[in-house]
């Protein structure tokens, strides 16, 4: 592996640890970007990487992203992320999860883990047998923790309303056309909330039957995954994959606003400027999609301090997402800088790197 400090994504990370446990076969990278605001919180990705460089890039980029996301969500948490390098068959064993839990525990609470791609609630439970520094554990109805999807969806829905108010000067969503990409946990939740407020939805999913079923439930239209980005609408809401906003993707858009939950929507930094040049209002992904991390972080903090958890506190914090977006858009309008650049600068200031 080439030295990671020569990586473009290296950003003065506080700690990057390579864990190799021969007995279980676990290979993992734990990256702490910043603990300026509190313990570095961010999920663990279980993935088969074609080469270790890809795993390192993910750990570096995703942990920095968590620093920004947690700071902008007003959480007393820093940014961290772990990746577990799986074999081609994606073998994940109890022994590997135990060894991973030990590695998290050895950091003594500087890193707090949670679910990410390839992880399940059951994995978090297994990890929690070895360390208390884990969140996203199964929750009873009405309790904190569990599936972050509905909380993420709530924040995105509120963010879309704020974007419509800012860009279109409208306080309601009646008849507002939204093209939504990805009808999974987050996208499905966003679509249902939008439909309740009278938005006119066009839906797409790579699993076409999923989009069709949701469209039938909500009285919406379904189109193919290839068509959704070019659909004429006021709001394009990406809730599937990252890196969809490149020259080609942005060129296809026929919308006034991009606001959705997918992580890392901009393929590269300059694509935020390209969106702004096209007059499209962008809701920085890590600001609008923070509902889930707000939920699991509060679950963790309550458990750590043995305090009762309050769902109203989670809701109140998610309700602050629109305000944060508005302050980004205002500064963007005043400075002429694109919304993503403004958001990054705000986040950097919050983590003491302004
Ligand atoms: P999910 O797996 O439940 O849903 C993703 C959906 O997107 C699936 O239905 C999938 O078939 C569809 N999809 C995949 N590729 C597609 C394509 N090219 N075109 C159209 N549809 C496609 O995942 P999720 O939890 O809903 O997460 C969605 C996005 O939001 C991801 O980028 C994730 O990183 C991000 N995110 C999720 C959360 C959360 O709380 N779950 C929090 C923050 C960010």
Structure description:
- It comes from Croceibacterium selenioxidans.
- Keywords: NAD, Oxidoreductase.
- It holds the Pfam family ELFV_dehydrog_N.
- Belongs to the Glu/Leu/Phe/Val dehydrogenases family.
- This is Amino acid dehydrogenase.
- It contains 13 helices and twelve strands.
- With 354 residues, the chain is α/β, with parallel strands linked by helices.
- The longest helix has 21 residues.
- The strands form two sheets. Strands 1, 2, 3, 4, 5 and 6 form a six-stranded mixed β-sheet that branches. A six-stranded parallel β-sheet has the order 9-8-7-10-11-12, sandwiched between helices.
- 51% of the residues are buried.
- The chain has two domains: 125 residues, Rossmann fold, CATH 3.40.50; 169 residues, 3-Layer(aba) Sandwich (Rossmann fold), CATH 3.40.50.720.
- It is globular and about 55 Å long.
- The model has no long low-confidence stretch (mean pLDDT 95).
- Helix 1 packs across helix 13, helix 4 crosses helix 5 and helix 10 runs antiparallel to helix 11.
- The site of nicotinamide-adenine-dinucleotide has 25 residues, from helix 4 and helix 5.
- Nicotinamide-adenine-dinucleotide binds next to helix 4 and helix 5.
